[in-house]
Amino acid sequence: MAYLNAPRLIFSGDFLSDVSTVNNDTAHYNNATFQPNFQEFGKGSANGWWNPEGGAVFDFQNCTVQQLALPDGTILSDSSEDILIGRIVSGSEGRPTGKMVDLDPDAQMVSALWCAQLRICTPQNELLLQGDITTTSFRDIQLRQTSGAAVNGQALGASWTSVLTNLVWGEKAENSAFLKILKETTQEDKLALNLNAFGYYYNHAPDGRFSLGRILGSIGPWFKGEPETFAPCRRLYGVLNLKPKNPFVYFGNSNFQVDTAAKRLTIDFGNSFPISDSLGTINTTSTFILGVANNPLSNGASLDIQYLNKSDFIEIGLLDYQAGPDWLNKTGGIVIFENLPEATLQALENRQLVLLSPSATDPTQFGLLARESVDGYLVRADNFVQRIDTGQTNIINFYTYQWGKTLPNATISVSMEAPTPDTPVGPQNPISEIYGNNFPQDGLSYCTSVTTDSDGFGQLSITGNAIHSPRVYLDGQIYTFDYQLPTVDPAFGIENIIVHLRDYYAVPENPVWGDISQTMIQYANLYPIMSKYIVNLANPEDLQLKKYPAFCL
């Protein structure tokens, strides 16, 4: 089950995301209405928001290895037990850092890591392990900071799941028993990686954490046939909303796996455990119980908590956590239950896992916080974010599971969402008309269903057709597809595929500056770090002075 497998490495620390905010605002893309103050710091479209001179840099900072889990269930957390513990986890060396990039200003909830690298080194900068992070977009965006987010400005968290490729095992790796086991266990020279990010600083606070966030990393073996952008595991879904308006689910999505042979359940709360600050402080002392439901549960998320009796579930055990920030950062939020009884293992084969909390007023009642999906179904698209040109066909890979095992011959329905309306210039949108998405609807050709094979694997072809600037000053169009199995679960929700279809463009035989000038002006407007400090992309003479022959037109 990818990163939840053992051997498993846990690290934690900070991440830097120096994103540019000028290009986050759709109205700023209109060259005809662009103003110089759009490149200046300040809240709102009349300015460049909170980081106008960002360079889209992504990097690991102050990260160290915290814990190792061995296949036999042993947990190592002291440097005397393995050379790897306490070692530095960093980004690339001797080359540019990775980048964090949105798909589009109309698709900012699938931000991707590009060209990022992960390295683990000794204090003397001797390499232990190095790998390239395959490009991946975050998903499972959910509420993390139930309080305290006013300091940093961002209460949400999300996960990047990927694989490490082009692995380099340093000479010193031989001194780590863990790394030797990991190298022997993983397949196809890849490693599974999961990154849970939260506590990001929009605010220019005096504590010096602007543009930093907290990150919890897990690395484990990757096995042939597994997806690359999500873990092929079972999942818990939160069913308790915190407030009536713009509700957020308490204890959101949590990945888990059941290893019947090892009699072990491993569950990841690293992207779902509620916290009160940007460093991962857990400020509750409530009792949480993991169990197996005796009867099917199908309730969706609600403000009203549903209660179970003791006879309604088999108790697996208490969730062993600690208040404060240390527990989450040392364990990555991953909890392990060992030596499960045979009766519990048998129940888990076809019954739902549940997360419960005892009632404060009636000890015989247990509030349901999260549950597994109806009938244990899971369907996910692997490469769910796509960029397509006219005439290009991209393939989306789907995987279906039931109770953690591949689900053969499953039918997945796929549908394009309806067009969204344009927003005319007005009091709430003073700069430029903003155009909707998902039109023209014939911009993409696709099938409306996918059937998986005997291994639960299926593919969807999406072909780009010619579109001609439906958003006028923004290249291409954003399309959102919904997909689901026939059994619709109100807690599971509907997952999406997000596609950016580029405008059709006939390449001139003898291009001149005028053919690309509007595009280059737009780049200069949206990325002031380039034009202010490197080269004015809107001026061909400046480009020629920088000796860029391609621009000597």
Describe the structure.
This protein has 553 residues and is mainly beta. The mean pLDDT is 95. The chain has 6 helices and 34 strands. It has helices spanning 177-185, 326-331, 342-348, 513-526, 528-533, 540-545, and strands at 8-18, 57-69, 75-76, 88-90, 98-101, 112-114, 117-121, 127-133, 136-137, 139-143, 156-169, 191-198, 212-221, 234-238, 240-241, 249-250, 254-259, 264-268, 289-293, 307-309, 313-318, 334-337, 353-358, 365-372, 377-381, 385-388, 393-402, 405-406, 411-416, 444-446, 449-451, 457-464, 477-484, 495-501. 9% of the residues lie in helices and 35% in strands.
Q: Would you identify the regions where 5 or more consecutive residues have pLDDT less than 50?
A: none
Class from helix and strand fractions: mainly beta
Oligomeric status: single chain
- What is the CA-atom radius of gyration, in angstroms? 25 Å
User: How large a portion of the residues is in β-strands, by DSSP E?
Assistant: 35-45%
| Helix content range | under 10%
Topology:
Layout: E1 8-18, E2 57-69, E3 75-76, E4 88-90, E5 98-101, E6 112-114, E7 117-121, E8 127-133, E9 136-137, E10 139-143, E11 156-169, H1 177-185, E12 191-198, E13 212-221, E14 234-238, E15 240-241, E16 249-250, E17 254-259, E18 264-268, E19 289-293, E20 307-309, E21 313-318, H2 326-331, E22 334-337, H3 342-348, E23 353-358, E24 365-372, E25 377-381, E26 385-388, E27 393-402, E28 405-406, E29 411-416, E30 444-446, E31 449-451, E32 457-464, E33 477-484, E34 495-501, H4 513-526, H5 528-533, H6 540-545
Which descriptors apply to this entry?
single chain, 553 residues, mainly beta, 9-stranded antiparallel beta sheet, 8-stranded antiparallel beta barrel, 6 helices, globular
